[in-house]
Amino acid sequence: MLEAIRRESAIVAPEEGCGLLFGDADAILGWTPARNVAAEPERRFEIDPAALFAAIRAERAGGQPLAGYWHSHPSGDPTPSRTDAAMAAPDGKLWLILGGEFRLWRAGTSGLHGRFAEVGIEIG
């Protein structure tokens, strides 16, 4: 899954790639790319609302739960930016960020920029 996200991000570079993560708070079981509809996709990401709403509707109908979001930082730094923090709801969702490496974060009410706590990635 991580390599597939890396390939998808390379396809859209130099824009930020983005998409959805499925599973639960303990395991990411799937992912999908989404169109980045940000006004400046080279500097920011905004997941296409149609993809997000479709995932929420599918979850409510018994589909895979939406565990969080992924996006790339073409700059190479997988640390959430202040812009990421301003966009993130403190809802416990996971944020997987690809820079030169992957790092996983959980959106909450404390931590980096007052919003993100890093979560270890275990591949199994």
From TrEMBL:
GO terms for molecular function: metalloexopeptidase activity; zinc ion binding. InterPro entries: JAB_dom_prok, MPN, VirAsm_ModProt. Residues 1-124 form the MPN domain. It comes from Sphingomonas xinjiangensis. PROSITE patterns: MPN. GO terms for cellular component: proteasome complex. The keyword Metal-binding applies. Keywords: Hydrolase, Metal-binding, Metalloprotease, Protease, Proteasome, Zinc. This is Proteasome lid subunit RPN8/RPN11. The keyword Protease applies. GO terms for biological process: proteolysis.
